[in-house]
């Protein structure tokens, strides 16, 4: 069997599911419009700019987003370590501790001292 | 047939291997090091060296001459075949596949140049002590002069094309620095700039020639190249020869790269004498003669050398007839005389030795005349217009006599120096088969006549006839520091030719250039000699009638078409800009436009065309990240497509 | 080929062999960068500048010692499970990066007698000398982050030159690039230009990274490995089945790297970014990024793609030719010294490519020598640009350089020398570098090599006009405006002196360094 056939099937399934769910909601969902629904979903940000030609977004949201990315990446790297923890031994433990120290402690310490955790 | 014979002869003679330098010759590096140290000291030492700097520079230049003379004496004591010595300096570029040690080749050819450069150079140092006495930047001037001497010596002593190129650029640099020495005058800066630009064209030729030499021979030192010539393909040799010629044309102001020399006269007069008459501009001739093995094996390239020389000798002579600026007339004459040397070099083994012979005698008499012109300017409030000179023979006796000796020498009046060297070139030009001896011989002969006319015009307008001075000038003789060098050079102009003939100068160069059998010109030698003297006499007589018998107007008359064209350097600048500058500007503009407008421009340009509005085009500016990304994407697509097509 | 989709069986964990001595220089630089971040976090504001400068200089010196001291045989080889190759080229280029990085850091540390490094802003929104700026400075937003950022970038560059597989190469590429994006946007004056440049650099850099990754994926599909030597072996033993993956893969990998060296048509960012970035950063970037990117390119094409070069070399030959021509011709019309130097750096990338395409061991040494020569001159040139000021702001327009030779002869003389070196005039490093890079191309590059050299000679003649235009401007034109030198500038002067001395030294006695480069031109596989 051609090794690409499973891939093709997966691709077809993916497209199919996307089309199906969007299509179904169009057909069976109630369509009662209100203002809040018409707005784009952005957690906490007023999506409409204050000035017609485009105002400023408060930068603090992006700070939060970046902090999230730092944690996210840490989790990403911790996962494979956790899966194979029993085989890895002391060396890898030290390596992960060093990694956490660098990316967690150093980065967060910097953000903290610079006031990145203060909302205002 | 004839050429093949020559090749084999030269192959044997020219391949005389250089032995390792020993004794006094081993100190040859000092020849370059002394003036270089002077330049460094004066430039880096700052004002502290103001008081003794010029004297020190002069002394170092003389020291270099003394060492050169001592080496010459040592060399004379050796067997002619063993005179060439090779002096290894240090591993300059030891990179893997390309090894090159910086070394010097001290042989009869290079030592002749060393003596010319250091002797004339030292005299001009002395002269400059007087000429530049009141210049506030005297120290810088002498530093540059020393730098020039060092670079010129490096050029002639180099044992490889690459090291020669270092000296080549070095003399160029010194020359620009000195042309633009009085940099507060914008016109002078333009002149320096022009010299640089034109020389760059020549340097491209040099650089490519070196690359091609490396590709052909696997090395760039003279010994390997000379030994490898018999095995190289004629096409490669011709290409190398033509590229070397391009380089030589740039440096030696030969057609079609001659336009910068006239403007270079903006530099101080001692500079014109040293660099733009006696030494640097003859580097091209040296290069051709030094590469004789290549040119002997490629008759086509050599013929082009001869043609270029012939064209330039006529061109320079014609331009020289119309110039009223004494220095520019002398510059045109230099161009023309180097044309003679190039012609001789292009004639092959019959001419090499005479090219160098004429180069040396010319170095003396032309430097002498330039110094004379400087002396005249010194006495005439820095005026250069010959129409405001006249009758200076009384006021400046020494200048008059020394200049006169130079004038007789360049005319080729026996027994002065030019007679011995130029006459030999004219004779050599008549040697050969087919059309060549007639064309080259008659051109050289005609050139001698025109030379006699314009040099006599220059001499007579300046020193004879009626005084046409402006009211505020009081001509006076220059101080001894200036006149003594002029006297020494004048003695050389008078006697050097005869001395060199008596010492058999061509035989002295034989270990380098190879021996060649004497050949007979197509006309008997006495006929050629007689004809030369007759045309010179006619030229002189014409000049005497026009500029002494008749009065010379103080403003230039409109003149004939040819005169006007000659005044404008035969429109060379205009032609150059037509051929070289405009295509370059257009290319730059179009590329620049493409870069600025980019893909956006192409798209919105289309839109603008459709909408009939040009405003869209104007809004297109450089700096859109999206258009950059689009350029990149297009690049990737084209790159991929091209690879796909190739495979 | 069924193995393509099966997960590798869970095997025993094998610890990677790590030769700590071999990678010590990189570790030192990265550790110092991390420490630098901590210094930023905890050190009192006034102490940060001396601590950061001291830390950075110390780190580079220690790293250099750690690089030079060990015996070459004991460190040569692949390490960290084959992801890093420590060999002649990577050690040579790492050493060069450390040395030139140190010079670059000195220029960045220049404060002209004021407070904090002068070229960088503590707050992107603040005008120089304004109340907001001083408030930002009081709040502890000092400008000393540039030092850890530069160290991170430098560490990434060192890793880039030793990366032995495509993923490490990508990681190194990002580690070196991201700090540079930030550094580009930190200019204190002309902030909008600087921030715009940073954004452009980032966007286009990300774009090129995507190409690199895509290419890496295709090559992995072709060779079944991301190890560069394995790619070479796979290509040599190829049966031709997966050939369609090879060329697009190679092309896209090359695009990613050619973007970093600034080759046409992937050069569009160069002038904008060089102009917008603070001049010390531009110098650092122009010298060190070029060194690192060419190091990576050398390894990729000489180790991984050498056996397939007949298929892709013609395309890169055209790119090299275009790079030289466009770089040289466009530099003619520039009116801003930084843009002019940017286009000149584009042309230089083309010259280096000429040497690289010769595919001979002598070319490796030649290219590495060229990188040193160009890097040393260019850092000094931008340090000079950083000093020439009008009303406090950098005077980068060429008209402002008029008459500099009369007011500040030493600065003009140094700049003249550097420009002559860029033009390749003999007795400067530019000439020997061009000889070292072009001669292998003539000897081993075949017809296309000779053609490229011809184009190279013509292009360098064109750039020579441009440089002479600047020189004439400095010496022969009457000064205008109120252009002066920022002073005191001890650190800059030191950096400029180093660059100038190297420029002369490498022109007159290039022997030792050329020897070293030639001895260091063997890649481990």
From TrEMBL, chain A:
InterPro entries: NADH_UbQ/plastoQ_OxRdtase_su3, NDAH_ubi_oxred_su3_sf
EC number from the UniProt entry: 7.1.1.-
Keyword Transport among record annotations: yes
Pfam families: Oxidored_q4
Entry's localization field: Cell membrane; Membrane
GO cellular component, as recorded: NADH dehydrogenase complex; plasma membrane
GO molecular function: NADH dehydrogenase (ubiquinone) activity; quinone binding
Topology of the protein relative to the lipid bilayer: Multi-pass membrane protein
Enzyme kind, highest EC tier: translocase
UniProt key word Membrane: yes
Catalytic activity: a quinone + NADH + 5 H(+)(in) = a quinol + NAD(+) + 4 H(+)(out)
Transmembrane segment boundaries: 62-81, 88-112
Keywords linked to the UniProt accession: Cell membrane, Membrane, NAD, Quinone, Translocase, Transmembrane, Transmembrane helix, Transport
Function summary: NDH-1 shuttles electrons from NADH, via FMN and iron-sulfur (Fe-S) centers, to quinones in the respiratory chain.
Record family assignment: Belongs to the complex I subunit 3 family.
Protein known as: NADH-quinone oxidoreductase subunit
Lineage, highest ranks first: Bacteria, Bacillati, Actinomycetota, Actinomycetes, Micrococcales
Automatic annotation (TrEMBL), chain B:
NCBIfam families xrefs: NDH_I_L (TIGR01974), PRK06590.1 (NF005141)
NADH:quinone oxidoreductase/Mrp antiporter transmembrane domain location: 158-443
Gene Ontology CC: one annotated term: membrane
Organism: Marihabitans asiaticum
Superkingdom to which the source organism belongs: Bacteria
Gene3D superfamilies: 1.20.5.2700
Protein name, entry field: NADH dehydrogenase subunit L
Lineage, uppermost ranks: Bacteria, Bacillati, Actinomycetota, Actinomycetes, Micrococcales
Topological relation to the membrane, as annotated: Multi-pass membrane protein
TrEMBL record, chain C:
Keyword Transport attached: yes
Membrane topology label: Multi-pass membrane protein
Family: Belongs to the complex I subunit 2 family.
Function of the protein: NDH-1 shuttles electrons from NADH, via FMN and iron-sulfur (Fe-S) centers, to quinones in the respiratory chain. The immediate electron acceptor for the enzyme in this species is believed to be a menaquinone. Couples the redox reaction to proton translocation (for every two electrons transferred, four hydrogen ions are translocated across the cytoplasmic membrane), and thus conserves the redox energy in a proton gradient.
Domain spans labelled NADH:quinone oxidoreductase/Mrp antiporter transmembrane: 163-457
EC annotation from Swiss-Prot or TrEMBL: 7.1.1.-
Gene: nuoN
Signal peptide: none
Cell compartments where the protein resides: Cell membrane; Endomembrane system; Membrane
Keywords tagged on the record: Cell membrane, Membrane, NAD, Quinone, Translocase, Transmembrane, Transmembrane helix, Transport
UniProt subunit comment: NDH-1 is composed of 14 different subunits. Subunits NuoA, H, J, K, L, M, N constitute the membrane sector of the complex.
UniProt-listed HAMAP family: NDH1_NuoN_1
Enzyme class label: translocase
Keyword Methyltransferase: no
A GO term for molecular function: NADH dehydrogenase (ubiquinone) activity
Catalytic activity, reaction form: a quinone + NADH + 5 H(+)(in) = a quinol + NAD(+) + 4 H(+)(out)
GO terms of biological process kind: ATP synthesis coupled electron transport
Species for this entry: Marihabitans asiaticum
Cellular component terms (Gene Ontology): endomembrane system; plasma membrane
Bilayer-crossing regions: 20-39, 51-70, 90-109, 139-160, 166-187, 199-223, 245-269, 281-302, 314-333, 340-361, 367-388, 409-429, 449-476, 488-509
Name this protein carries in UniProt: NADH-quinone oxidoreductase subunit N
């Amino acid at each position: 069997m051609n090794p690409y056939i499973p891939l093709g099937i997966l691709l077809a399934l993916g497209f199919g599911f996307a089309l199906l769910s969007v299509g179904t909601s169009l057909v069976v969902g109630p369509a009662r419009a209100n203002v809040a629904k018409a707005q784009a979903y952005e957690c906490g940000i007023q999506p409409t700019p204050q000035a017609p030609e485009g105002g400023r977004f408060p930068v603090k949201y992006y700070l939060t987003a970046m902090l999230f990315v730092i944690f996210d990446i840490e989790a990403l790297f911790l996962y494979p370590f956790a899966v194979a923890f029993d085989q890895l031994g002391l060396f890898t433990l030290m390596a992960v501790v060093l990694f956490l120290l660098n990316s967690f402690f150093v980065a967060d310490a910097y953000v903290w001292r610079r006031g990145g955790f203060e909302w205002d | 047939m004839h050429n093949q014979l020559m090749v084999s002869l030269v192959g044997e003679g020219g391949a005389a291997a250089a032995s390792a330098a020993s004794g006094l010759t081993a100190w040859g590096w000092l020849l370059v090091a002394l003036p270089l140290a002077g330049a460094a000291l004066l430039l880096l030492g700052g004002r502290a060296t103001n008081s003794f700097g010029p004297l020190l520079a002069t002394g170092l230049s003389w020291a270099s001459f003394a060492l050169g003379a001592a080496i010459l004496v040592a060399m004379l004591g050796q067997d002619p075949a063993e005179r060439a010595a090779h002096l290894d300096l240090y591993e300059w570029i030891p990179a893997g596949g390309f090894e090159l040690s910086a070394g010097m080749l001290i042989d009869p050819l290079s030592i002749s140049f060393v003596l010319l450069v250091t002797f004339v150079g030292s005299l001009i140092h002395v002269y400059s002590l007087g000429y530049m006495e009141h210049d506030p930047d005297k120290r810088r001037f002498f530093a540059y002069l020393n730098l020039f001497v060092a670079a010129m010596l490096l050029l002639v002593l180099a044992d490889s094309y690459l090291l020669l190129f270092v000296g080549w650029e070095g003399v160029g640099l010194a020359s620009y620095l000195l042309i633009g020495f009085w940099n507060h005058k914008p016109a002078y800066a333009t002149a320096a700039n022009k010299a640089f630009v034109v020389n760059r064209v020549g340097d491209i030729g040099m650089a490519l020639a070196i690359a091609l030499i490396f590709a052909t021979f696997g090395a760039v030192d003279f010994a390997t190249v000379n030994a490898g010539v018999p095995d190289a393909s004629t096409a490669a040799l011709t290409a190398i020869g033509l590229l070397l010629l391009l380089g030589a044309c740039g440096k030696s102001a030969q057609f079609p790269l001659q336009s910068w020399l006239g403007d270079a006269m903006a530099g101080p007069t001692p500079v014109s004498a040293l660099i733009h008459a006696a030494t640097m501009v003859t580097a091209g001739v040296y290069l051709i003669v030094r590469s004789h093995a290549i040119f002997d094996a490629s008759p086509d390239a050599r013929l082009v050398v001869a043609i270029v020389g012939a064209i330039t000798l006529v061109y320079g002579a014609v331009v020289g007839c119309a110039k009223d600026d004494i220095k520019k007339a002398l510059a045109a004459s230099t161009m023309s005389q180097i044309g003679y040397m190039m012609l001789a070099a292009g004639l092959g083994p019959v001419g090499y030795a005479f090219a160098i012979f004429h180069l040396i005698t010319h170095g003396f008499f032309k430097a002498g005349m330039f110094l004379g012109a400087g002396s005249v300017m010194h006495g005439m409030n820095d005026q250069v217009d010959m129409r405001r000179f006249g009758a200076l023979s009384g006021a400046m006796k020494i200048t008059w006599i020394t200049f006169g000796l130079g004038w007789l020498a360049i005319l080729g009046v026996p027994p002065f120096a030019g007679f011995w060297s130029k006459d030999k070139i004219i004779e050599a030009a008549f040697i050969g088969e087919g059309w060549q001896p007639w064309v080259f011989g008659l051109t050289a002969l005609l050139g001698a006549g025109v030379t006699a006319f314009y040099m006599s015009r220059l001499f007579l307008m300046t020193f004879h006839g009626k005084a046409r001075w402006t009211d505020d000038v009081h001509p006076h003789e220059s101080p001894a520091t200036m006149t003594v060098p002029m006297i020494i050079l004048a003695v050389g102009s008078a006697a050097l030719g005869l001395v060199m003939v008596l010492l058999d100068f061509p035989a002295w160069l034989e270990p380098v250039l190879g021996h060649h059998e004497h050949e007979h010109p197509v006309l008997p030698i006495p006929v050629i000699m007689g004809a030369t003297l007759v045309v010179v006499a006619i030229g002189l007589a014409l000049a005497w009638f026009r500029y002494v018998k008749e009065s010379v107007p103080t403003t230039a008359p409109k003149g004939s078409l040819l005169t006007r064209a000659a005044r404008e350097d035969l429109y060379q600048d205009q032609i150059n800009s037509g051929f070289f500058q405009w295509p370059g500007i257009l290319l730059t503009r179009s590329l620049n436009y493409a870069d600025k407008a980019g893909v956006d421009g192409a798209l919105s340009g289309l839109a603008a065309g459709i909408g009939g509005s040009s405003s869209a085009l104007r809004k297109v500016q450089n700096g859109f990240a999206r258009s950059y990304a689009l350029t990149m994407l297009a690049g990737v697509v084209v790159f991929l497509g091209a690879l796909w097509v190739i495979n | 080929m069924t193995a393509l989709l099966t997960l590798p069986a869970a095997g025993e964990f094998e610890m990677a062999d790590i030769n700590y001595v071999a990678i010590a220089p990189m570790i030192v630089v990265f550790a110092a960068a991390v420490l630098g971040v901590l210094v930023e976090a905890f050190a009192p504001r006034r102490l940060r500048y001396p601590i950061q400068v001291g830390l950075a200089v110390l780190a580079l010196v220690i790293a250099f010692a750690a690089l030079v001291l060990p015996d070459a045989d004991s460190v040569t080889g692949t390490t960290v499970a084959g992801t890093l190759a420590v060999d002649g080229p990577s050690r040579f280029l790492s050493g060069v990066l450390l040395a030139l990085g140190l010079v670059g850091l000195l220029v960045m540390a220049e404060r002209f007698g004021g407070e904090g490094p002068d070229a960088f802003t503590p707050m992107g929104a603040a005008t120089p000398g304004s109340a907001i700026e001083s408030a930002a400075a009081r709040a502890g937003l000092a400008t000393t982050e540039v030092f850890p950022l530069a160290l991170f970038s430098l560490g990434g560059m060192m890793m880039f030159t030793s990366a032995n597989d495509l993923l490490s190469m990508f990681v190194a590429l990002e580690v070196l690039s991201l700090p540079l994006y930030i550094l580009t946007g930190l200019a204190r004056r002309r902030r909008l230009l600087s921030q715009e440049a940073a954004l452009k650099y980032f966007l286009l850099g990300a774009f090129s990274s995507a190409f690199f990754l895509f290419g890496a994926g295709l090559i992995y599909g072709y060779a079944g490995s991301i190890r560069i030597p394995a790619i070479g072996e796979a290509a040599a033993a190829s049966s031709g089945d997966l050939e369609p993956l090879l060329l697009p893969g190679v092309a896209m990998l090359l695009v990613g790297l050619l973007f970093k060296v600034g080759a046409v048509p992937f050069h569009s960012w160069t002038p904008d970014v060089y102009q917008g970035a603070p001049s010390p950063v531009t110098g650092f970037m122009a010298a060190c990024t070029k060194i690192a990117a060419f190091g990576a390119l050398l390894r990729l094409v000489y180790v991984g793609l050498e056996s397939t070069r007949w298929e892709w070399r013609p395309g890169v030959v055209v790119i090299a030719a275009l790079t030289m021509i466009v770089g040289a011709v466009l530099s003619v019309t520039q009116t801003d010294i930084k843009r002019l130097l940017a286009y000149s750096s584009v042309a230089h990338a083309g010259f280096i490519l000429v040497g690289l395409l010769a595919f001979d061991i002598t070319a490796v040494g030649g290219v590495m020598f060229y990188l040193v020569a160009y890097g040393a001159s260019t850092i000094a040139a931008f340090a000079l640009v950083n000093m020439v000021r009008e009303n406090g702001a950098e005077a980068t327009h060429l008209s402002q350089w008029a008459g500099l030779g009369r007011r500040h002869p030493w600065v003009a003389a140094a700049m003249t020398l550097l420009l002559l070196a860029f033009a390749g005039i003999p007795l400067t490093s530019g000439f020997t570098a061009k000889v070292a890079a072009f001669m292998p191309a003539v000897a081993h590059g075949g017809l296309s090599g000779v053609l490229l050299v011809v184009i190279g000679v013509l292009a360098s003649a064109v750039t020579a006009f441009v440089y002479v235009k600047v020189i004439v401007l400095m010496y022969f034109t009457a000064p205008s405006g109120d252009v002066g030198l920022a002073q005191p500038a001890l650190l800059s002067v030191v950096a400029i002196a180093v660059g100038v001395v190297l420029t002369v030294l490498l022109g007159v006695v290039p022997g030792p360094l050329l020897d070293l480069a030639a001895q260091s031109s063997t890649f481990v596989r």
